[in-house]
Amino acid sequence: MKNVLPLVLRIAVAIILIQTLRFKFTAHPDSVYIFSKVGLEPYGRIAIGVAELIAGVLLLIPKTVWIGATMTLGVIGGAIFMHLTKLGIEINNDGGILFITAVITFILSGIILWLKRKEIKFF
């Protein structure tokens, strides 16, 4: 059971990160709206999509879990910051689901990083 929880958390965060890529990489109108509003369209949308893809893959590789969790904290931390400063909690009447998902992903990534803290080379 001790090894199951970290695996479930890793898979959950990776799924969240990877499932949003279709919106970023296909220039979905909601994604374009969000990145236009923060002044990062189109290059920021693509770059953040690539960063999320890399983080999601790193979370699934046992030796790189802590790197993926750290990247996720950075990318999602930026998303939360943008929600709080420029976008608002609710975007296009979504009921705040994007913001809530970002907060959950951030928390889960923090838990993953805490669980894997002994694997970080420089600590």
- The number of domains is 1
- Tell how many strands the DSSP assignment holds: 0
What is the helical fraction, as a range of percent?
over 70%
Q: Give the helix/strand class.
A: mainly alpha
Indicate the radius of gyration in whole angstroms.
15 Å
Strand content: under 5%
Distance between the termini: 26 Å
Q: What is the helix tally? A: 6
Order of helices and strands: HHHHHH
Poorly predicted parts: none
Mean pLDDT: 95
Q: What general outline do the C-alpha atoms trace? A: elongated
Sheet with most strands: none
Subcellular location: Membrane
Main location: membrane
InterPro entries: DoxX
Pfam families: DoxX
Characterization of this structure:
It is a multi-pass membrane protein. Keywords: Membrane, Transmembrane, Transmembrane helix. InterPro entries: DoxX. Helices cover 73% and strands 0% of the residues. The protein is mainly α and 123 residues long. It has one domain. Helix 5 (65-87) runs antiparallel to helix 6 (97-115). The protein is elongated, with a radius of gyration of 15 Å.
What would you say about this model in short?
This protein is mainly α. It has helices spanning about 5-20, 20-25, 30-35, 45-60, 65-85, 95-115.
What attributes does this structure have?
mainly alpha, 0% strand, transmembrane helix, DoxX family membrane protein
Q: How are the secondary structure elements laid out?
A:
Blueprint: H1 4-19, H2 21-25, H3 29-37, H4 43-60, H5 65-87, H6 97-115
Helix pairs in contact: 1-4, 1-6, 4-5, 5-6
